[in-house]
Write a structure and sequence with these properties.
By secondary structure, the protein is an alpha+beta fold. The protein has four helices and seven strands. The chain has a seven-stranded mixed sheet with strand order 1-2-3-4-5-7-6, with helices on both faces. The longest helix is centred in the middle third of the chain and has 15 residues. It binds coenzyme A. Coenzyme A binds next to strand 4, helix 3 and helix 4. One of its GO terms (molecular function) is protein-N-terminal-alanine acetyltransferase activity. Pfam families: Acetyltransf_1.
């Protein structure tokens, strides 16, 4: 990805493109546009960022010359903040942007006074598990059968992960 890829706070005009990317990134359990709307309405305890890049052959973003390549959101209203969602579009993966989005959430959580970050990840999602392990998250709990299966099979466990924000 080129240097024109940037991270900025998400706004109302980004919602439709975020919801479209969500359906590609989470085919089994995508959030609706209404869910994104209520998340943004939860600001300032909810905070969302979008990764944007130049539109390549037709815009899928809020502006003619821009497209949404990824996004991340969190909740912060106490000692422990929570990752609500994080996704990078298939074409943009493997270039460190998932890690950059996660670092942005960590920075904001620290600025909000949180000492730890928590999240839930599907047990059958090796890419996300690797991302979080590389960022220093440790498993603290399992929610058995928390997620719908993507292929009609058995429900999938949620792994509950935690990172102390004072640690690198
Ligand atoms: C998970 C996701 C955000 C990773 O985004 P990304 O931009 O490719 O991640 P990065 O390039 O920053 O990689 C971060 C780490 O994860 C590893 N990783 C990324 N994809 C991987 C894969 N498919 N398998 C194994 N490891 C993977 C990278 O090697 C890197 O590890 P390293 O720091 O040890 O080298 C992306 O795959 C995605 O959006 N998936 C669909 C949505 C999703 O599952 N979101 C998480 C919900 S909890």
């Amino acid at each position: 990805m080129t240097g024109s890829t940037t991270l900025r706070a998400a706004g109302w005009r980004d919602l439709a493109a975020m919801a479209r990317l969500e359906r590609r990134c989470f085919p089994a359990d995508a959030w609706s546009a209404a869910t994104f709307w209520s998340e943004l309405a939860g600001r300032p305890t909810r905070s969302y960022w979008v990764l944007t890049g130049p539109a390549a052959g037709g815009s899928d973003g809020p502006a003619e010359d821009e497209q949404i390549l990824g996004y991340a959101g969190m909740s912060s209203d106490g000692e422990t903040a929570d990752v609500m969602t994080l996704a990078v579009g298939p074409e943009t993966r493997g270039h460190g942007w998932g890690s950059r989005l996660l670092e942005r959430l960590h920075d904001h959580a620290r600025d909000s006074g949180a000492g730890a970050m928590m999240l839930e990840v599907r047990a059958d999602n090796p890419a996300a598990r690797h991302l979080y392990a590389a960022a220093g998250y440790e498993q603290v709990n399992v929610r058995r059968g928390y997620y719908r299966s993507s292929d009609g099979g058995s429900a999938v466990d949620a792994l509950v992960l935690r990172k102390e924000l004072s640690l690198p």
